[in-house]
Specification:
Cytochrome-c3 Hydrogenase, chain B
């Protein structure tokens, strides 16, 4: 009965190896500290079967926890023979912040700043995914203007995430000028976010029932100018890398077949680079994705070069979506008018008793869904971000489970880089765009 796992190492993934108890159980007492000694060492010699001669032929390369090739703190240990990788071990959990457990002690809107810290390179997409899950569970239909704004911020976030991935991968392989050029374009989008909400990286733009802010005067024109500038500069980035003989030689490595990608649970650009046409925006359209015109880029070989090409084309398509939404931006409110969900207008707060009572109720009790559960997913920069939420009818979630896209992708890394060169592992890690905050939650 049940699932039979092969070669399953019965060890903790996200917590210390000496940690006792199961923190996600309701009877776990999180107020008590646990004294923990040294961390468990990663070793390839735990079976003790290697002879001295075999040990002499093998060397180990430690990538991380702090390494220029990693987006955050994660550890990759390579066993090499010469320059060829024979085995790989991964260690995660360095950025584990108990996200799922913290959600159980927070009201639904209070969870939004925590979602910013999942994939901090494209924070608005996490906000949108969380609020969409809660709204789907409550049956809330947000205003058309809020849907349009969420699409704009999601696609702008996709662009800056891909720019970071391409720029970081380029500098890892020696193309430093492209790194600075990519970051210059990201800065333009951050300035747009700053004009809207005063924050640049972790923005907390959404609320259950709509948006936290409406667009300020002149923001649409600024956004149109920025999208045109970035579109032009993407072509320059592509010109400098796409047909570069050195870039192609360095990235035509570590291919993944479509079958293997599906078996590993790939989603997002890494899956589409293998030739699999799966994008939640197209297969299960939400908001106005079914009404806008965009294409899903696909690769052929599933190697680092194809992952790069898919991301470049996705940036073009995202900017195309933003332009279409801005041209047809609906008017109206950005939050639902339900007094049990949205805060009242600040103009009426100090002069209207009903508004004061509504404000007090929402701040004190928050949004309260009925008993139920739901799984909701959105297409973020790295793939499918899913939230499984259970409500017991109180103001706090009973249980939250996150499906981060990086987890399935990173677990395949040892198989993908086996029998490759160490330099190929750097290119592969960069093309997978593994974000430790999203991976460890």
């Amino acid at each position: 009965m049940g699932l039979a796992f092969k070669n399953l190492a019965r060890k903790r993934l996200l917590t210390h190896n000496e940690f006792s108890g199961h923190p996600l159980r309701k009877d776990f007492d999180g107020s008590k500290a646990q004294p923990l000694s040294e961390s468990e060492a990663i070793s390839f010699e735990e079976d003790g079967q290697l002879t001295p001669l075999q040990r002499e032929k093998k060397e180990w390369v430690n990538l991380g926890p702090c390494h220029p090739a990693t987006q955050g703190t994660l550890r990759v240990m390579l066993e090499i023979e010469g320059e060829v990788i024979s085995r790989t071990k991964l260690e995660i959990g360095y950025l584990h912040r108990c996200f799922e457990k913290l959600c159980e002690s927070k009201m639904y809107n209070q969870v939004i700043p925590y979602t910013d810290r999942l994939n901090y390179c494209s924070a608005p997409m996490n906000n949108i995914g969380w609020c969409k899950a809660v709204e789907d569970m409550m049956g809330i239909e947000i205003p058309d203007r809020a849907k349009a704004l969420r699409m704009i911020f999601a696609e702008l976030s996709r662009v800056i995430d891909h720019l970071l991935c391409i720029g970081a991968a380029a500098v890892d392989l020696g193309a430093a000028s492209n790194f600075h050029f990519c970051f210059e374009q990201r800065e333009r989008v951050y300035e747009l976010f700053e004009k809207l909400c005063g924050s640049r990286l972790t923005v907390s733009l959404t609320r259950v029932g709509g948006m936290a802010f409406d667009l300020p005067i002149g923001w649409v024109n600024d956004c149109l100018k920025v999208t045109k500038i970035i579109s032009k500069n993407i072509e320059e980035i592509s010109t400098g890398l796409t047909r570069s003989k050195i870039w192609m030689d360095r990235t035509r490595v570590c291919p993944v077949s479509a079958k293997d990608a599906l078996d590993w649970g790939y989603t997002g650009p890494c899956l589409r680079a293998c030739g699999v046409n799966y994008d939640i925006r197209e297969t299960s359209p939400y908001y106005f994705y079914g009404d806008v015109d965009f294409e899903i880029p696909l690769g052929i070989n599933g190697d680092c070069y194809d992952r790069y090409l898919v991301r470049v084309e996705e940036m073009r398509q995202s900017l195309k979506i933003v332009a279409q939404v801005l041209d047809n931006l609906p008017s109206g409110d950005v939050r639902v008018s339900d007094p049990n969900i949205s805060l009242p207008n600040k103009k009426n707060l100090h002069s209207n008793f009903e508004s004061m009572s509504q404000h007090l109720n929402i701040i004190t009790n928050g949004v309260v869904p009925a008993r139920g559960e739901i799984y909701s997913s959105t297409e973020v920069a790295n793939g499918e971000l899913g939230f499984y939420v259970i409500s017991d009818g109180s103001k706090n979630p009973y249980r939250v489970k996150v499906r981060p896209p990086c987890f399935s992708i990173f677990q395949s890394f040892p198989d993908v880089v086996k029998n490759s060169m160490v330099s190929d592992a750097m290119a592969t890690l960069g093309s997978m765009n593994v974000i430790a905050g999203e991976l460890d939650r």
